[in-house]
Write a structure and sequence with these properties.
With 218 residues, the protein is mainly alpha-helical. The chain has helices spanning 3-10, 36-39, 41-68, 73-92, 133-137, 139-149, 157-173, 178-198; strands at residues 18-22, 115-119. Helix 3 (41-68) packs antiparallel against helix 4 (73-92) and helix 7 runs antiparallel to helix 8 (178-198).
Length: 218
């Protein structure tokens, strides 16, 4: 085993298989957020198509898990990519207003972009849970996520109010309030965990916990 492989093997597992992180920029543009609805429009159109494919892939994965207890890796990678793309657009636009750097049109990891999302691939998944986790077990979480980020769209709820207040603060002060930023990230982190669980990508039930800040808890 190489030294790099030894370090990876020795690294502690993440607190949750869903990782959502970002890099805080205290002073994005004062005014750019006013036109981001237009700048992000091409992304919204592409994501509308991608999320239709996301649902289709999830249905296919349901049958694959039922038969093999495994989520086909290629399908898993696609759905993670859709969530990753969606988070970058949400972070740029009205989910957070966290950066002025335009998001790439890509499902892949972009290491130098200030917003990141990943889901650890599960080697095996419960066959029995697929019958209940996508609707019954996740229902209390969906209700909370709807309040936090407006459901799967990630453009409503508490996060939308925080984003609006942050935009007004940027307009008048040029500073993104750190408390609003940390709370906003916590709301989106909770939502990402719930979406991944409901989409059968993990058997780890999302904690009822608002983990705020740029980084995942260790």
């Amino acid at each position: 085993m190489t030294p790099a492989e030894t370090l990876v093997a020795a690294a502690p597992p993440p607190a949750n298989p869903v990782t959502l992180e970002a890099t805080y920029d205290p002073a994005p543009s004062r005014w750019l957020w006013l036109v981001k609805w237009l700048l992000a429009l091409p992304h919204y159109l592409v994501l509308a198509v991608l999320f239709v494919a996301f649902v289709v892939v999830t249905v296919i994965a349901w049958f694959a898990i039922l038969i093999t207890a495994r989520y086909p890796r290629a399908l898993f990678g696609f759905n993670v990519g859709v969530l990753r793309w969606s988070w970058r657009v949400s972070y740029y636009a009205y989910g957070t207003l966290g950066t002025d750097r335009y998001p790439p049109f890509s499902l892949a990891v972009v290491p130098d972009y200030p917003a990141h999302l990943d889901v650890a691939y599960p080697e095996r998944l419960s066959r029995g849970l697929i019958f209940v986790k996508g609707w019954l077990l996740i229902l209390p979480q969906w209700l909370l996520v709807s309040l936090l980020v407006g459901g799967s769209t990630s453009t409503g709820g508490v996060a939308a109010l925080l984003t609006l207040y942050a935009g007004v603060a940027l307009l008048f002060t040029g500073i993104y309030p750190r408390g609003m930023y940390d709370l906003n990230l916590g709301a989106h982190r909770w939502a990402a965990r719930v979406v991944a669980y409901g989409a059968l990508m993990t058997d780890v039930y999302p904690p009822f916990r608002l983990d705020q800040g740029e980084r995942e808890p260790q």
